[in-house]
Amino acid sequence: MSSVDYLAQFQYVLPEVIVSLAALAVLFLDRLALRDQSPSLRALIGAMFSATACFFAAFWMSQNKLEGSIAPSIAHLLPGTSLAKQLILLLAIPTALCACDSKIRAHVGEFFALILLSTVGMLFLVSSENLLMIFVCLELATLPLYLLACFDKSDRRAPEAALKYFLFGGMAAAFTLFGMSLIYGYTGSLQLPVIAQKLAKIGPEPLLLVAITMTIAGFGFKIAVAPFHLWAPDVYETAPLPTAALVAAGSKLASFVILARFTALAFSGHRGTAFWDSWLPGTAPLLAILAGSSIVIGNLVALRQTSIRRLLAYSAISHSGYMAVVIAGNPTDSLPSILYYAFTYGLATIGAFMVVTIVQSNRGNDATGSFTGLSAQSPGIALCLMCFLLSLAGIPPLAGFFGKFYLFGVALRGKPSLELLWLVIVAIGMSAVSLYYYVKILKAAYVAPTPKDQQPLQIPPVLHVTLYLLAAAILVLGLLPTLLLNRLTTGH
After folding, report:
1. Which of 112, 209, 225, 274 could staple 46 via S-S, CB 3.0–4.6 A?
2. Angle of CA points 47, 48, 49, to nearest 5°
3. HEC string of 88-138?
4. What is the DSSP letter of 33?
């Protein structure tokens, strides 16, 4: 390939280049120009710089409709993957902004650089169609998160949570690599389209089923579905706010996109069946088991939590189960519904984590009692919290309601149709259970009497504005879902 061809293809990776250069720039800016400034000012400038870079990259992609191969045989940019990249960048913006009030006092530049580098890994991941590229991008997206998880030196539990995250991540990487190596041994190819053609000619051999199981198990860690979820509660509870937001939003969206592509493309000939009274081995029953266990475990264990951040972690596990339902039932048509649900879920989760962290920093802990009287002292923040939690519960007219409706509808339209009706019924039932623990928080905020000695919340202006924008986005996408849905279904 000539040098001109490489230069022509440079535009396909320009968003990744922009974010990568921003990571280097924020590192040098903090070290050289801001080293004598206060940590709060350094964090504010780093947050604004990182958010601006992500916005500019997303805006450039929205103005340039690009389709084609990125260094052929490595990745392929389709309308769906281009939109997935834009959504990841849009989720990275509030993730960066919420870092302006984090407890990071040292290595501020490194903190933002790691956030941006992890985002770069997610951007490359969603367009990858090569096994080696997928594995490298998974690690690029995940390795910075291990470091980010223990950045808060004031919490002694953070290093233990980060170590658990790292050990589980290393084991999951080994599972993924072993499964991919078996797939390569069967097909002799690293390209997903070629793998799909060759695997379609092979029957359900035991070793091939092992390869499928190992690969999906590795992805199961990334999306935190049961039983691969054990790292999530500790990390969500102790990690700095931006880290928890990045893990819950951008990382989950990117991981679900690549899982959907693997299931719909490479493993399309080995789907099996998952009727409640008839099971054949394949991706459908495996994902149905993971989805069902995540939905049940996530919602039931969340009922027992007193820490709201830990509650949100188990809630995230249940939401991973909801998204796994559509991949199990209808992997071919699952991408638009996954992107819509993962994006709106990410907005609500980032907002909820922001409110919880604000309350925790002002009142010392994140127990349910800390939210007592929130509506009286900060009615705007309480209203945003209600918007986020009710969206997570799937209450109309918020975006979470339409997201679940769309997700389950696509799952039931798979072939054979209504195959996973039993699992959708379980998911709807567990959604009703989730309403209880979300309303429990709102009860403390709106109904419980306000203590007389409670001090007003101190909220940075940047977080205030970000919270209102997130709440407005959730309301608008709930009332007018076609604003996003039309682009997801048409690719434009």
Report:
1. 112
2. 95
3. HHHHHHHHHHHHHHCCCCCCHHHHHHHHHHHHHHHHHHCCECEHHHHHHHH
4. I
3-state secondary structure of 428: helix
The C-alpha atoms of residue 90 and residue 57 are separated, in whole angstroms, by 9
Question: Is 361 buried (19+), middle (13-18) or exposed (0-12) by CB count in 10 A?
Answer: middle
Reduce the DSSP state of residue 471 to 3 states and report it: helix
- Length, in residues, of the chain: 492
Transcribe 239-303 into DSSP letters. S-HHHHHHHHTHHHHHHHHHHHHIIIIITGGG--EEETTEEESSHHHHHHHHHHHHHHHHHHHHT
User: What's the whole-number average pLDDT of the chain?
Assistant: 87
Give the pLDDT confidence of 138-183 residue by residue, as tens digits. 999 999 999 888 887 777 788 888 888 999 999 999 999 999 999 9
pLDDT tens track for 29-60? 888 877 777 777 888 888 899 999 999 999 98
What whole-number distance in Å separates Cα of residue 73 and Cα of residue 258?
A: 16
Whole-angstrom distance, CA of residue 215 vs CA of residue 192 = 13
Using alpha carbons, select from 334, 164, 175, 288 the residue that is nearest to residue 238. 164
Beta pairing class for 273-275 and 278-280: antiparallel
Q: How many CB atoms lie within 10 A of CB 480?
A: 13
Q: Check if the beta carbon of residue 309 is closer than 8 Å to that of residue 441.
A: no
pTM: 0.93
Domain boundaries, the chain: 3-490
- Which residue has 């070290």 as its token pair? 31
Residue 472 scores a pLDDT above 90:
yes
| Closest listed residue to residue 308, CA positions, set 248, 385, 368 | 368
Residues 6+ apart with CB under 8 A from 482: none
What's the rounded Cα separation, in Å, for the pair 18 and 2? 24
Biggest CA pair distance of the chain: 73
Burial 56-68 (b: 16+ CB within 10 A, else e): ebbebbeeeebee
